[in-house]
Amino acid sequence: MPEENSPLPVFIQRFLAIHPGGASHAGALLVCMIGVLAGCAWMLGGFTMIVSAALAVAMMLLFSPMVSPEFVMKLLRAKPLDPHFYEATHEMVGLLCDRAGLAERPKLFVLPGKGVNAITTGTEKGTSIAISNDALHGLSPRQMRAMLAHEIAHAWHGDTRILLITDVIYRATWTVAIFGLALALFGNFNPPGWMIILFGIVPTISFLLQRAVIRNREFAADHGASDLLNGPEDMIDALLHIDQINKKRLGLIPYRSTQPPHILDTHPSIRARVNGLRALKPGTWQKFFESRRMPGS
Question: Where the protein is mainly located, per its record (predicted)?
């Protein structure tokens, strides 16, 4: 069901990945982000500026190599997960990776701090998964396996790279818009009033689309986890249990008015994710990864 009390129509909620809408549409959201950037560049300098913005984005992606997973783990103060004391967790990851067809097994780390959390970074050729202490000690084996399946689905799809692309596009849009505003206010560029207003709001539009891509990838990873687990039941159980642990450990107040609006969240609500999993049709499991296997795998 759509989110209650939302002023947005259902189809907008689905497009912005506030509410599950079936198949992943991250590509369409990326196209919209590119369109916003192109429109902003056109207002500033026509076709020439569009080409310049496209070249700038391409150069940023080309010369902005992926940050190594090991470096990210150091920034997070995560430590390697001892395979001797957590042998079962490492075995779970190995079995899930074999089923997903990952060429390399992710390296496992443990995160400091409270709450159940997991972070995946890297690509399918070199991935690290960090798991919080509360996850290691607060989840049952089936719930832990479900959480790991979700993270492995992120790794399989290369979601870190997708989010890097959205970040570059957003930053380029912000730069072009601010440059346009600066020229309009302090330079000899005299656009009409509506154009100045658009320069002011397009960074926000791009930001909201970027958040929608992130939420979309969460729904897709839930679907992938359901496939790896041969059904959504374990993933649903894990999500509900994690939500209860985090409310207790982090002292979260269960009132929406005290939290950011859904449209600004990086993750869909637990209710939306559970509804999305329950809406999966029997028979789609075991096909999600098979339909995306690389040639020769």
Answer: membrane
**Residue 109 to residues 29, 66, 69, 222: CA-CA distances in angstroms?**
32, 19, 11, 21
Question: What is the tally of structural domains in the chain?
Answer: 1
Q: Are 244 and 109 in contact (CB under 8 A)?
A: no
Nearest CA among 118, 111, 106 for reference residue 69: 106
Tokens of 121: 């970074």
d(CA 217, CA 222): 9
Tokens 């989110």 sit at which residue?
A: 3
Asked if residue 2 belongs to a domain, the reply is no
Is the Cβ–Cβ distance between 270 and 218 less than 8 Å?
no
Residue 219: which of 233, 237, 235, 234 has the closest Cα? 235
Considering the entire predicted model, what is its pTM?
0.87
4 inside domain: no
182 Cβ partners below 8 Å, 6+ apart? none
Exposure string of 23-60, with b = 16+ CB inside 10 Å and e = fewer, is: ebbbeebbebbbebbbbbbebbbeeebbeebeebbeeb
Compute φ and ψ for 187, nearest 5 degrees.
-110, -160
- 237 within a domain of the structure (yes/no): yes
